[in-house]
Design a protein that fits this description.
Strand content: 35-45%
Distance between the termini: 163 Å
Helix content: under 10%
Largest sheet: 6 strands, antiparallel
Number of strands: 11
Radius of gyration: 61 Å
Order of helices and strands: EEEEEHEEEEEE
Structural class: mainly beta
Number of helices: 1
Length: 233
């Protein structure tokens, strides 16, 4: 058989239709001009301020007077004597009816009432005290014990200024101020010295006592104090 020859096939070229997006044209937008309305503030008028006149209250404070400057006393003290007699008499002198004894842990024993012999005395002057030109005070502190001192038996503490006469400024009576056979401790007596004094003597003196009556004086302390004035700050 005869060979079959196929007729040649010619393809038409494929042409794609152009795909173009048509431009979209928007209508032009015209913005209307905006004009802000003018702001007109209403005028504000402040109400007039009328201050009421103020009158200062009158000063009724009481007038103040300055306090007068006053002086306060200050005290200057000197310890003149502090004697327990364990080491002797110290500055004390004794009459013939007074003796240093070991009784009551050392003491001065006084008996009888003789004015010239039944006593113990100490003298102080400016060499001990210093300037005595102002009013001052002497304070005496002591212990004592009594033996055979019946009711109404007594002894005295005395002083003399500028070597003058002795004066009683304290009296101790059995049955009234102390008991016979007992002791008293820390007794204190004070007297004043006038300004300008030069010396003072202190004495323990037997009073209404017999030769058998005995008083034992111990632990004697003597202070001298002067009060002076200084202005307040």
């Amino acid at each position: 058989s005869s060979p079959t020859t196929a007729a040649p096939t010619t393809r038409a070229p494929a042409t794609s239709a152009p795909t173009g997006t048509a431009p979209v044209t928007g209508a032009p937008i015209t913005m209307a001009p905006t004009t802000n309305a003018p702001t007109t503030s209403a005028p504000t008028t402040s109400a007039p301020t009328t201050n009421e006149p103020t009158t200062a209250a009158p000063n009724t404070n009481a007038p103040t007077a300055s306090s007068p400057v006053t002086s306060e006393p200050t005290t200057q003290c000197v310890l003149l004597d502090d004697q327990d007699f364990s080491n002797g008499l110290g500055g004390w002198s004794l009459g013939s009816n007074a003796n240093l004894v070991e009784d009551y842990d050392w003491s001065i024993r006084i008996k009888d009432k003789d004015q010239s012999s039944s006593h113990m005395t100490q003298h102080f002057d400016q060499s001990d005290i210093g300037n005595m030109d102002t009013h001052s005070e002497i304070t005496v502190t002591f212990d004592f014990c009594a033996e055979s001192m019946e009711s109404t038996d007594k002894f005295y503490m005395q002083f003399a200024i500028d070597d003058g006469d002795f004066y009683n400024f304290a009296e101790y009576e059995s049955g009234k101020d102390f008991s016979n056979g007992g002791c008293m401790y820390g007794l204190t007596e004070s007297f004043f010295l006038p300004g300008g004094s030069k010396s003072v003597d202190i004495r323990f003196q037997g009073g209404d006592m017999s030769n058998q009556d005995r008083v034992f004086i111990s632990k004697v302390k003597v202070d001298w104090c002067r009060a002076t004035c200084s202005d307040k700050p």
